[in-house]
Amino acid sequence: MTDSSLLNSELELQQQEELYQQLLLQTMGKMQAENPDSKVIRPQPGMCVKTHSEPSKHKVFVNICQSNSVPPPPELSREELVELLQSEDPSGYRVPMSLGEPHTEIDNSSQGCTAYDVVINQDFFQKCQKDPLFQQFVILVSLEGLENKYNLELSRDWKVLKNRKFLGSVGEQSIRTKSRPGIQELQPQPEFTLLVEPPAGDPEYLIAEIKLPGVTSSRSLVLDVGEDRLVLTARPSLFHLDIFHPFLIDQENSVAQYNNSTQILTVTMPVVSS
Questions:
Q1: Longest dimension (CA), the chain
Q2: Residue 195: which pLDDT band, with cuts at 50, 70 and 90?
Q3: DSSP 53
């Protein structure tokens, strides 16, 4: 006679191992689903803008890059730009741009800082270089775009670095080649909790517990763990979770386990620093 509970236990362990291997592969971005509506580009450096986040005063650098793969905004003269900035709703004019993920860098003072890469059309970037008003406009639009995407508050007291076009190393970005439809079916966000172990003192682990009702197998989960971000998608289009957390974690030693009975995914992430 075979103990069915042992078989179920072995099957669950196998599924957990598969999910763990998937997590490790995706941590470095090696398992990105192919998307026919996007392509990967490597932009050219443009200018580096120094500012800081509010209220923490943490230094932030915005690398405004250029690429012909990003479409240009509608043609705009200097006079039209002045009228736009003086209007009640300047947001009606949109500048196509690709906003990259935050990456941790070291500044000239050997201090830690955060950098973001923003890619705009190359011809439009050159136009901004020739006119200070256009340059200020594209910096303002870039800051607002980052604030909206990452829920930030960035100081408007910025400085364009004279002898540096980029902080860090130029990375690839994935940009959409087709516009999204006007109406989209949004994936619901699952319930989740973030726990710190130990509860007091220096944190050693960040533990995410995510409830996924209706998900019967870990095979339907796509999990991506970044240094300060966790992205989870349950296929086909059941749930989508994209959260930032206040810790830098060890991606390679993070472990994920899915309990089929409780339908809860547990992600254990060793904390590098807070």
A1: 85
A2: confident
A3: B
Residue whose entry in the numeric block shows the structure tokens 């042992």: 6
Closest CA to 242 of 255, 254, 229: 229
Number of neighbouring beta carbons within 10 Å of residue 23: 21
Give SS3 for 265.
strand
Q: Tell me how far apart the alpha carbons of residues 266 and 192 are, in angstroms, rounded to a whole number.
A: 10
Task: Check pLDDT > 70 for residue 239.
Answer: yes
Grade residue 4 by pLDDT with cuts at 50, 70 and 90.
very low
What does residue 129 show for φ and ψ, rounded to 5 degrees? -70, -30
* Residues 6 or more apart in contact with residue 270 via CB below 8 angstroms: 204, 205, 249, 250, 253, 254
260 vs 171: CA distance, rounded Å: 38
- Tokens at 201, concatenated: 């003192």
Q: Please enumerate in sequence order all residues whose Cβ is within 8 A of that of 206, keeping only pairs 6 or more positions apart, or say none.
A: 194, 195, 196, 197, 245, 247, 249, 268, 269, 271
| Contact between 153 and 53 (Cβ < 8 Å) | yes
Angle value at C-alpha 16, between 11 and 21, nearest 5 degrees: 125
Pairing outcome for strands 112-121 and 59-67? parallel
Tokens for 227, please give them: 């240094």
- Pairing state between β 229-234 and 248-249: unpaired
Distance separating alpha carbons of residues 152 and 155, to the nearest angstrom: 10
Q: How far is CA 119 from CA 93, 96, 99, in A?
A: 17, 9, 7
